[in-house]
Amino acid sequence: MIELKASQGAGADAPMQEVVQAAVIGATGYAGCELLTLLVRHPSASVTCLMSSGKDGKKAFPIEDSHPKLRGRFSVLCEPLNVEQVLVAGPDVVFLATPHETSHQIVPQLLEGGLRVVDLSAAFRLKDQSAYAKWYEFEHHFGEVLAEAVYGIPELDAPRIASARLVANPGCYPTSVILALAPLLNAGWVNISAGIVADSKSGATGAGRKPTERLHFPEVNENLRAYGLFRHRHWPEMLQELDLSPGDLIFTPHLLPITRGILTTIYLRLSSLRVLSEIEGLYRSFYAAAPLVRIYPAGTLPEILGVANTQYADIGFALDESTGRLILVSAIDNLGKGAAGQAVQNMNVMFGLPQQTGLL
Amino acid sequence: MIELKASQGAGADAPMQEVVQAAVIGATGYAGCELLTLLVRHPSASVTCLMSSGKDGKKAFPIEDSHPKLRGRFSVLCEPLNVEQVLVAGPDVVFLATPHETSHQIVPQLLEGGLRVVDLSAAFRLKDQSAYAKWYEFEHHFGEVLAEAVYGIPELDAPRIASARLVANPGCYPTSVILALAPLLNAGWVNISAGIVADSKSGATGAGRKPTERLHFPEVNENLRAYGLFRHRHWPEMLQELDLSPGDLIFTPHLLPITRGILTTIYLRLSSLRVLSEIEGLYRSFYAAAPLVRIYPAGTLPEILGVANTQYADIGFALDESTGRLILVSAIDNLGKGAAGQAVQNMNVMFGLPQQTGLL
Amino acid sequence: MIELKASQGAGADAPMQEVVQAAVIGATGYAGCELLTLLVRHPSASVTCLMSSGKDGKKAFPIEDSHPKLRGRFSVLCEPLNVEQVLVAGPDVVFLATPHETSHQIVPQLLEGGLRVVDLSAAFRLKDQSAYAKWYEFEHHFGEVLAEAVYGIPELDAPRIASARLVANPGCYPTSVILALAPLLNAGWVNISAGIVADSKSGATGAGRKPTERLHFPEVNENLRAYGLFRHRHWPEMLQELDLSPGDLIFTPHLLPITRGILTTIYLRLSSLRVLSEIEGLYRSFYAAAPLVRIYPAGTLPEILGVANTQYADIGFALDESTGRLILVSAIDNLGKGAAGQAVQNMNVMFGLPQQTGLL
Amino acid sequence: MIELKASQGAGADAPMQEVVQAAVIGATGYAGCELLTLLVRHPSASVTCLMSSGKDGKKAFPIEDSHPKLRGRFSVLCEPLNVEQVLVAGPDVVFLATPHETSHQIVPQLLEGGLRVVDLSAAFRLKDQSAYAKWYEFEHHFGEVLAEAVYGIPELDAPRIASARLVANPGCYPTSVILALAPLLNAGWVNISAGIVADSKSGATGAGRKPTERLHFPEVNENLRAYGLFRHRHWPEMLQELDLSPGDLIFTPHLLPITRGILTTIYLRLSSLRVLSEIEGLYRSFYAAAPLVRIYPAGTLPEILGVANTQYADIGFALDESTGRLILVSAIDNLGKGAAGQAVQNMNVMFGLPQQTGLL
Fold first, then answer.
1. ipTM of this predicted complex?
2. CATH superfamily of the domain spanning A173-334
């Protein structure tokens, strides 16, 4: 449909091609559904293989059995996970929306088989191999793969993503925090020692599709709860990518009674007094080439309704100019820019397509 | 259990006493929580024993571990189910908010031990012993207990409830349907052969607290689904109590994205043309002595907000006077009049208290 | 508006062209937002004019002031309603998501100016000119335009839509009822005199964006209410399109505590006994060429989650084969197939594009 | 029902009486409904006068027209506001759930007439008379009444409340913040100059019942938005009661898509390192005599579900012992302890009843 030209998007190494053939493994979860929804209307991608990592049985099934919304969209059945079969099929890219342990196990095989991978799990996000035992309760065995993996926020690292074999797609909370803080920290405008507080609120799909009492409808509805104080798994990911020490950043997630969306409210002190227009200017400049980041003008703030069912990250500000206390508000769809949308954005960069292709 | 005075409430047989000592078994579910909430502020009842039928372990625990709302309300711990212990304690009444199979098993023991029981499960609701295999997937072994059990809608059967040893507390859907249809059917005003349709919509607590994919927050939120068409378990209960044949009544439940409340919309044809004021008059007369049933005047209709967190059943009407097509709308809180509220109302009747004691 | 090639889509009269230039009037409402969301990613359409019919002031404003979700998507401002300006701009099609009275007033001017119109209001849906005073509280002055207007359900009337100057885009409830009943009624399989009951449940966006107490958040949330019994405005629209008499069909809408989606449960008697596979076969055959209608196989039923944020109409069945009592369940997104999606589908048909273009 | 003895609750000045006669003015709002719900089952209070300050007309009406939940509970009609009539009736206490401007106007008249008042508006909360123009957009004319008014958090000021003629019932957000911070600030354990951040999330009833676009169902549902950054009206109330300077405390409210409940997450630094048990001990000691404050043990945190439809304030903690960073989580029902529940608690104290009477 679109005429293909030399890469507009990412680094010079990025190859170019007409239609990217994609395998989606872990298709029965929420991120899987979102990936399929995006890929099925992507003008330059095609889903050629669907697999489920679940233990729901050994037989292939139509994906609409899992996602009624997708009824009639895929003729190919969803197969049980089978790495050999993926290798034989030889897609251009494999999306993994699988449990951390599953990704940990099969990514090395896929890479060895010559495939490129976007992994939506956390299995290759943390550079510190020893951290997995602490944060994810499994021993990580693939230090070299960890070293090779590129943490995939295209706005911050497009050239490396373009040539990556393995992109570790970021967590939803980290995406909302990192995109909001990166310009300020990069500019050195934050009084880091005064401490940064990120108070995040997320919809329930961020916690996955496995039924638990914690996510039982009447336990979430008409409720709000904080959890994981001082010890949420996504915290080390933020510290790593923002180059902060544990004492610099407090991160508190809350579970919202909504299906999708994250709003993060960040509190910090500027290292010197500035006016709000400077802050806005910094962000507009930093994200000038980022088609999926939207900066809000003074007096307006992002909200979840503005990003739900979109692939955008929205960022806004309020500043007490007399004291230098700054509040950042960022909003994303946890399944969009916080998961599947960013994964497709990474794919776009990897294959030389404009970042936003199929995402607007 | 102390002084007995003359009955104030229900049938003449009903004894009366100052404080009813109650055991609540199945305290960790939603109906259990509601029972405790009602009983703790009931002026003439006291909870003396809490038990859980779950397999959560063998140790006693504070009930707030299960229901944060009850923190600080009970000094007594919640014990693992132990029938012997209940018999020894000898409460005046035992509330069972247990699975059907558990109730089926322990009710005979409790009765034999001389205790009176209000069973919120379905284990003793259907008079047809053979029906349990079909509708509840277990063989029922206690035909005599079934025969003795009184189906507990106090507005329809207070005298028998007053002297009952075992009250089978009705299902939530049946309560909303039976209370709405009883006056009309009793008066012979319904063209039964034209068929009655009851289209019910219920909040998610009606399905219990066990986590399942079907009740996972993102599967219920922003959704509505019909289920159990032509074959929901509560249908035979309605037929039995309304003395209808299967062909007379269609019942369709739907799962609403709310925590509590049922709205039932019932469609029928009158056996002869009437004006709306006659219908309203019939209902006001039928429920004149019923403190927990509210009849809505012409032009207004019950809604869930009017009954949630109350123990009322609200009933309203719309009539096409020219054709005799009548629409009934009834609303209850599925945990209130549809479960725990009705159970306490039954207790009140059993112990000679005014029906509404502790329920307004 | 450029090159014309041979029609690919609908009727033979339908012209074809590369990019359809569209004006959207009433852009600040929910249907307006949805229209813009669909058109901005439609491969063969372009929004060239945005107008608001509101009284919010006289100045043009960026559409994201009204719809945060659309931030960054439109460079053109939203102008105050000005028919002259639309006529001068000369778009290929004008979408009206305006109040009934506004549409009633401006449609004749637009047609006279040579423009084609898809009107999402009810102003030209009812053929009976005198009905407007009763159902919509205004006198209708344009009988000839009414006569010319084509009621726009593409699955049922594509050829006339293809050549229409004015398409009256159906109401959301009628779409859910008409699509579900049309095949059966068309086949003569319904015992009409036994009566048909359509019990519909709709999300709150169906009631528009104007704040009222009835739609105030705490009045809708955790609630369900029936309204408009025997007298909802959408009922005559259903009767007209299904060729039924008032006594044949009862329609009861309910307001759900969700943002978008309609589920309709329809109860009827077959005119003779049939098996479920016959019903399913009839529907599959009737909608064989309809890309936006999905028929559910026996044992599965549509639910709102399957259609929300899609442009599909989903239809399923449950049949009591022994009595011929049939329950139809249909689901649509009230803003999708129930409003904006259907409007774009009508545009597609009018301009010779495949019906589903830009809608999957 | 309860035997009345000499005051158990508040100060020695508190009178004692059998049944407190209460007038509720502003009965049609959400706080009004909650007041009526609490008072109607209060064992020592009776509602003798209902009035609406609205402009809904001049006639008396049954309160169930405004609150379906209260159908059948009040025989007395709701009258249009008429101060003379209140003075003549001479209730023991007048609850005002009226707009700020209305309270401002009528409180002096009520006091002059010899009545005692609990005002749920903000009209007499701020001691600084000149602050009203800035924060509430009206000039305050009654400096002496302001000076006399007692800010009504019974846990902090029972003796003065006991003898007050006018209690200024606190705002919902301030209640959640002040109760959480008071013990720590009182003990001098907070490093105030490091700054305190209170990130609050509230259900929609906190914003009142007047329909606005901001509170229109589809604008709140599935959304979360921050508002009033650095300039919410409740902020000066917190500063005043906690004796803090503007630079000491940042307060950010967010609008949750739920009906009732506030969760506040507070971030601060301790003035010296402590262990969590010390913090918990401090709170248990501080609130030892407070029947409506519940302190959560280490490892558990309050959530909205635990307080909704209750009159409790729940407080919990997480501490990074190595850095002295403390997170407080407090939860209340904004209509309960955040409004009507606290108002009734104040009434209890004013009339020598145990604080929790009618509130458990």
1. 0.94
2. Dihydrodipicolinate Reductase; domain 2 (3.30.360.10)
